[in-house]
Amino acid sequence: MTDQDMNELKLELAKSIRMLENIQLLDMNGHVSVRVPNSEYFLINARKASRASISVEEIVMCDMDGTLVEGELEPPSELHIHNEIYKRRKDVSSICHGHPHWQTVLGIADIPIKPVFSIGSFVKAFTYFEDSSLINYSEVGQKLAEALGEDTVIQLRHHGSVVVSTDIKSAFATAVYVEEHAKKLYYAALLNPKHKVLEGDNYRRTSETAWSPSIVQKVWNYYEEKADMENVFKGILGK
Ligand SMILES: [Zn+2]
Prior knowledge:
Blueprint: H1 3-22, E1 31-35, E2 41-45, E3 59-63, E4 68-70, H2 80-88, E5 94-98, H3 101-109, E6 127-129, H4 138-148, E7 153-156, E8 160-165, H5 168-191, H6 200-209, H7 213-229
Parallel strand pairs: 6-7
Antiparallel strand pairs: 1-2, 1-5, 2-3, 3-4, 5-8, 7-8
Zinc ion is lined by residues 29, 78, 97, 99, 159-160.
């Protein structure tokens, strides 16, 4: 990978973190990572870097044991979410972990999160991980990775969620729509306990048409442009 490619990857990661923070999906403690192509390493935000103002200089590199291999700053304490999933899932190249409000509320209320609207219905599974503690050592990370299995989303009860995908932009789009399902489901459940989720053939057909690389790019472009208009990327290149 050339230095220019590495810098572009760090910039895209820093942008994703600021964008997710800006739409309240990450909060001050969440983290996003990306696998460095054709390597045994991944990039992730530094633990103490502000998610609202992170720059490319605050992105660090770790190996698959969670050891820091590049950068001076400490990685997040929940780093083991990332290295344990990357070790098991060769198809995964980006991971988001945040503490989104509506998903957490539904987890506390014990209302299973299901796809409930057509846009975003590509998100297929919302299983729960019952250990609500920080994923700050490798044994819990391993348990989480096993519980995730081949899915793209797992809810951490009383804690947040983990989203995995093939690249930064599709992980971003997935994170956006999981929270949209949770928010809509919250209000629908208040209005009617017998609310209707997407299911059966209707769900299958809807979800098949809801996901394509162009849709992912459209979602990314929309939020990137909004963030740009709100000056969210100020100072992202560092000094
Ligand atoms: Zn967490």
